[in-house]
């Protein structure tokens, strides 16, 4: 059987998530899931607050402290003041915005780009963003990974006006 317009898996997922397309070819795509960690999220939460916006779908976000978590004994306080502040801000923000958190002593806590597939948060066919610098494809369950610049990151949570 001949297919007149065959599409790759990537094309099919993109098409199903495309919200709008500009004349220049750029597209706005719907993001299904958002992984959040303590290093890049404070800026995004602050921008939402300054703009008077809300997290549109807190149920589609999952937060985890990652980069500043002690690798040995997590029962002690975090020694570095900046690291502690980032984790405290993450806790405050997810509580305020009603986002699920896998905190430091939670058995599900781990590296932000590993916990998605490990915990079943990422699923085949979904789009996903994560403010992390490692451009991994989140295991086999996501077709691509978008590492976003901090100044653009808040657009993922901003409701359409």
UniProtKB/TrEMBL annotation:
Biological process annotations from GO: L-leucine biosynthetic process
A GO term for molecular function: 3-isopropylmalate dehydratase activity
Residue intervals of the Aconitase/3-isopropylmalate dehydratase large subunit alpha/beta/alpha domain: 11-133
E.C. no: 4.2.1.33
Keyword terms, alphabetized: 4Fe-4S, Amino-acid biosynthesis, Branched-chain amino acid biosynthesis, Iron, Iron-sulfur, Leucine biosynthesis, Lyase, Metal-binding
Catalytic activity: (2R,3S)-3-isopropylmalate = (2S)-2-isopropylmalate
Taxonomic superkingdom: Bacteria
Cofactor names: [4Fe-4S] cluster
Broadest EC class assigned to this enzyme: lyase
Pathway: Amino-acid biosynthesis; L-leucine biosynthesis; L-leucine from 3-methyl-2-oxobutanoate: step 2/4
Pfam families: Aconitase
Biological role: Catalyzes the isomerization between 2-isopropylmalate and 3-isopropylmalate, via the formation of 2-isopropylmaleate.
Quaternary state and interactors: Heterodimer of LeuC and LeuD.
Name this protein carries in UniProt: 3-isopropylmalate dehydratase
